[in-house]
Amino acid sequence: MTARMSREDRLRLRRAERAVDRMEDMDRKVFLAIRVEELSYSEIAARFNITVAEVEWHFAGSLRVLMKAMDEKDAWWWKFLP
Fold first, then answer.
1. Distance from C-alpha of 66 to C-alpha of 35, rounded to nearest angstrom
2. How many CB atoms lie within 10 A of CB 30?
3. 48: left (phi > 0), else alpha (psi -120 to 50), else beta?
4. In angstroms, how far apart are the furthest CA atoms of the chain?
5. What is the CATH number of the domain that holds 67?
6. In a domain, 27, yes or no
7. Which is deepest, 62, 77, 81, 82, by most CB within 10 Å?
8. pTM, to two decimals
9. Alpha-carbon gap, residue 73 to 66, rounded angstroms
10. 45 close to 52: Cβ distance less than 8 angstroms
């Protein structure tokens, strides 16, 4: 038995999809590799020939885009990113 999504859930999903579309290319690739493919940071680093630190950087960037789209505000703690 499948449950129907509420209107609010559908709108939230659309906002998330648009946010993923707005991400920088590498941010989006890293985000999807982590959240959809469930790869480790080291696996992603090897796939894209980048460092684990760069994977973390791109993932943080993707989360910032997603959070801004979902909350429509910028959290104070993102201000510390260069």
1. 13
2. 28
3. alpha
4. 47
5. 1.10.10.10
6. yes
7. 62
8. 0.79
9. 11
10. yes
What would the pLDDT profile of 33-70 be if each residue is shown by its tens digit?
999 999 999 999 999 999 999 999 999 999 999 988 88
63: which residues sit within 8 A by CB, 6+ positions away? 31
Cα separations (Å) of 73 from 20, 29, 67, 69? 17, 24, 8, 8
Query: Does 8 fall in a domain?
Result: no
Residue 32, in any domain of the structure: yes
Report if residue 5 sits inside a domain: no
User: Which of the 8 DSSP states describes residue 3?
Assistant: P
Contact 30, 58 (CB under 8 A): yes
Domain range for 69: 14-73
Task: Give the count of domains, the chain.
Answer: 1
Q: How many residues does the chain have?
A: 82
